[in-house]
Design brief:
Layout (H helix, E strand, L loop, with lengths): L9 E4 L12 H17 L3 H15 L2 H9 L3 H8 L11 H9 L3 E5 L4 H11 L7 E3 L13 H10 L6 E5 L2 H10 L2 E5 L17 E3 L2 H9 L4
Parallel strand pairs: 1-2, 1-4, 2-3, 4-5, 5-6
Helix pairs in contact: 1-2, 2-3, 5-9
């Protein structure tokens, strides 16, 4: 094990555009369903719906947070609708699976999505059996990353010592609270929308482009 990570006992991963490549464009399907949802909700055309969607995403952290605040949207209905997508753009990732199996300690997924969708994605990737716990938007009391509340709930619920935990994310802004709490931070720089927004060397400990490749590099020879 790379000595920089030898003390780590808990590994916390984001899901979308992190455990699978942003280039698969899976999240693009969710994005399109969000726009369509707002069209129906507000009775607007696609251009206005897109504008509202991105306004809430950039202003509130997630589209859902903004819609709940300004339009009293039912979060369960919204999340079920927008995550109802085919998963054929992603495939089983045997390299990442093998690396996760070798990791010492517990493995978590902390996502702004909902658990039903997240488990389906993890199953599609072949990774579900290696994840000890999934902490979704509802487990975070509908408080999305990068607000610190969900991070604290995850740490408290599972007795995670932040100094012995690492957080892996494709969005720098979502690493800021992890760094503030004392975690080691890994930024997956793979072209996610606004992934580098708010970049600061003080926030990012390690910069990688592929999670499986990075884990292989720190785990070293299997022998």
């Amino acid at each position: 094990m790379d000595r920089r990570f030898a003390h780590i006992r808990d590994w916390i991963f984001d899901l979308d555009n992190c455990l699978y490549p942003a280039g698969s464009r899976l999240f693009e399907l969710i994005d399109a369903r969000m726009t369509a949802y707002i069209e129906r909700l507000l009775g607007v055309d696609p251009v206005d719906a897109r504008r509202v969607q991105k306004m809430h995403f950039h202003g509130s952290g997630t589209t859902l947070a903004g819609l709940m605040k300004h339009h009293d949207v039912d979060p369960h209905h919204f999340m079920g609708d927008v995550h109802d997508i085919p998963l054929d753009r992603i495939d089983r990732d045997d390299r990442l699976l093998a690396a996760l199996r070798r990791l010492p300690g517990r493995k978590f997924v902390h996502t702004n999505g909902n658990a039903d969708y997240a488990w389906k994605v993890l199953d599609r990737l072949g990774l579900a059996a290696e994840i000890d716990h999934l902490h979704d938007i509802f487990a975070a009391d509908l408080t999305p990353k990068p607000e610190v509340h969900g991070y604290r709930k995850l740490l408290d619920q599972f007795g995670i010592e932040p100094e012995r935990a690492v957080m892996v994310e494709d969005m720098v802004r979502n690493l800021a609270p992890a760094r503030q709490l004392g975690m080691t931070t890994v930024w997956v720089d793979n072209g996610s929308e606004r992934g580098n927004h708010g970049y600061d060397d003080a926030i990012v400990d390690v910069r990688v482009t592929d999670v499986g490749e990075w884990l292989e590099s720190i785990l070293g020879d299997n022998e």
